[in-house]
Amino acid sequence: MRIIVENDYHSMSKKAALMVASQITLKPDSNLGLATGGTPLAMYDKLIEMFREDEVDFSEVKSFNLDEYCGLEADHPNSYHYYMYDNFFKEINIKKENIHIPNGKADDFDRECRDYEETIKKAGGIDL
Question: How far apart are the C-alpha atoms of 73 and 69, rounded to whole Å?
Answer without folding.
Answer: 9
